[in-house]
TrEMBL record:
HAMAP family: GTPase_Der. Belongs to the TRAFAC class TrmE-Era-EngA-EngB-Septin-like GTPase superfamily. EngA (Der) GTPase family. The keyword Nucleotide-binding applies. Residues 1-38 are annotated as: Disordered. GO terms for biological process: ribosome biogenesis. This is GTPase Der. PROSITE patterns: G_ENGA. GO terms for molecular function: GTP binding; ribosome binding. Residues 9-20 have a biased composition (Acidic residues).
Length: 517
């Protein structure tokens, strides 16, 4: 057998790096106070002797293994006061492409079709050691109705929330009546505005861009967001225009990060608007309205949370095409940056294979999980009986996840979301002291030893919780533990220690005894 770490539970799980310089980081220290608030010197005699015996057995088999244990750090404080830059303009003038150029990565969804971006989408950027927030917006047109009017309203709100504005115009088309109408709104806002003439790919277009002086916003800056022409001058001008302190808050650390996931049209955007108390994102009966992940800082029960509304996942990313494919990738990225995910399920409809797939995606990502059954007001008693049967049949693998029955439309039971989120995060960050853990495994293996296989019985010599978020346990064993026994271990860990709302990871270091020569 290999001496390396073996990740258990996910076929695609990457090998876990557990290297650390401090052996006490994993709770194998001989003194001090552990994460349970208990003095390690005060562990009862049986537990203390059990830990010493387990350490001796593991070191005898593996040598000095302490440096292989590590733990994750907790989130720090957020960075308030970042300047905020809004990027606005008519549909299909290249705003999202320009945003990707500003932030230095392909984050905003881009397609050669007008109207792909619909909400205010926030990113973080840095230039010459100055950090700031960038808001990408949908196409701004003042003479529209319905969904397009909501998109335009979001762009106008972005201007009011920003400290400065980049107004993007298509240099090949020139100034239009819509551009002139938007300029009037920008002047009324009183915010500093940088006029950018985009799609300047040759000398002729650069000359045409000079006609944009007529908008009265000063000298137009010719750039090509697609090819990067003029990008350096653009970033320099942006940094000069932004104040030292703004209204933005960094997403790094600080408030806990919550991702809203689910199939299209299950009410993710409606839930975000209900929590925010305003029309933060565009909502429409047409499925797939949200394309880019939308961040919003929301206060619930006197506590700040970062909520991220994501695009509805219709199918596997490999089966999607166009902007739907990239929206699915952005949704996965939003989940990776989150700490807890709320998966919304339409309580009035039959639980689908896609619902189960999305839940599995959260489970595999190692994020804390809350199940929110939305549109509860539309389900009758008969439907609720069938729903319970579907949950027992299809969601048995996440029976540990807190459940909340809500209605984003009527705001029914919205107050139950915060306790569910806090319970899931508490389970996600639960840590068991090494002494208690080894006492648990000693009692467990004595009462229920691993079955004999080939005349041999694998033994667990030592166990330590190497990280939280999600809780990850390292087992030093004399043989490979079968999947059924690992599921039994996970079930007993939940029974004894809780871990509500979080997946559990088990990694093993297996070493067979060397045969005698």
């Amino acid at each position: 057998m290999s001496d390396g770490w073996v990740a258990v539970g996910d076929e695609d799980e990457a090998e876990l790096d557990l290297s650390a310089d401090d052996p006490s980081a994993a709770g194998v220290d001989d003194g001090g106070v552990n994460d349970d608030g208990v003095d390690d010197d005060g562990i009862d005699g049986v537990e203390d002797l059990g830990l010493e015996a387990a350490l001796a057995a593991a070191r005898g088999e593996f040598g000095d293994f302490d440096s292989a244990l590590a733990e994750l750090t907790q989130p720090g404080e957020g960075e308030p006061g970042l300047p905020v830059l809004a990027v606005v303009g008519r549909p299909n003038v290249g705003k999202s492409t320009l945003v990707n150029r500003i932030i230095g990565r392909r984050e905003a969804v881009v397609e050669d079709v007008p109207g792909v971006t619909r909400d205010r989408v926030t990113y973080e950027a840095e230039w010459n050691s100055k950090r700031f927030m960038v808001i990408d917006t949908g196409g701004w047109d003042l003479k529209v109705r319905g969904l397009q009017a909501q998109i335009a309203a979001q762009a106008e709100r972005a201007v009011s929330d920003a400290d400065a504005v980049v107004f993007v115009v298509d240099a090949r088309v020139g100034a239009t009546d819509t551009d002139e109408a938007v300029v009037k709104v920008l002047r009324r806002s009183g915010k500093p505005v940088l006029l950018v003439a985009n799609k300047v790919d040759d000398r002729a277009t650069e000359i045409e861009a000079t006609k944009l002086w007529s908008l009265g916003l000063g000298e137009p800056l010719p750039v090509s967001a697609l090819h990067g022409h003029g990008a350096g001058d653009l970033m320099d001008d942006i940094v000069k225009m932004l104040p030292e302190v703004g209204h933005g808050t960094s997403r790094e650390g600080g408030p806990r990060r919550v991702a809203l996931l689910g199939r299209p049209n299950v009410g993710k955007s409606s839930l975000l608007n209900a929590l925010a108390g305003s029309e933060r994102v565009v909502v429409d009966d047409v499925a797939g309205t949200t394309v880019d992940p939308v961040d919003e800082l929301i206060t619930l029960d006197d506590r700040l949370w970062w909520f991220v509304d994501t695009a509805g996942i219709r199918r596997r990313s490999k089966d999607a095409s166009g902007h739907e494919y990239y929206a699915t990738l952005r949704t996965q990225g939003a989940l990776d940056r989150a700490e807890v995910a709320i998966v919304l399920i339409d309580a009035s409809a039959v639980l689908s294979e896609q619902d189960v797939r999305i839940i599995s995606m959260v489970n595999e990502s190692g994020r804390a999980l809350v199940l929110a059954f939305n549109k509860w007001d539309l389900s009758d008693e008969d439907r609720r009986i069938y729903l319970e049967r579907e949950i027992d049949r299809d969601l048995a693998q996440v029976a540990w996840a807190p459940r909340v029955n809500i209605s984003a439309r009527t705001k029914r039971h919205m107050d139950r979301l915060t306790p569910a989120l806090e319970a899931a995060l508490a389970g996600w960050e639960t840590r068991i002291s090494t002494g208690r853990l080894n006492q648990f495994f000693t009692e467990l293996t004595q009462a229920h030893p691993h079955p004999l296989r080939g005349g041999k019985q694998p033994r667990i010599l030592f166990a330590a919780q190497v990280s939280v978020g999600p809780p990850t346990f390292a087992l030093f064993t004399t043989g490979f533990l079968e999947a059924g026994y690992r599921r039994f271990i996970e079930r007993r860990l939940r029974e004894d220690f809780g871990f509500a709302g979080t997946p559990i990871r088990i990694v093993m270091r297996v070493r067979e005894k060397r045969s005698r020569r």
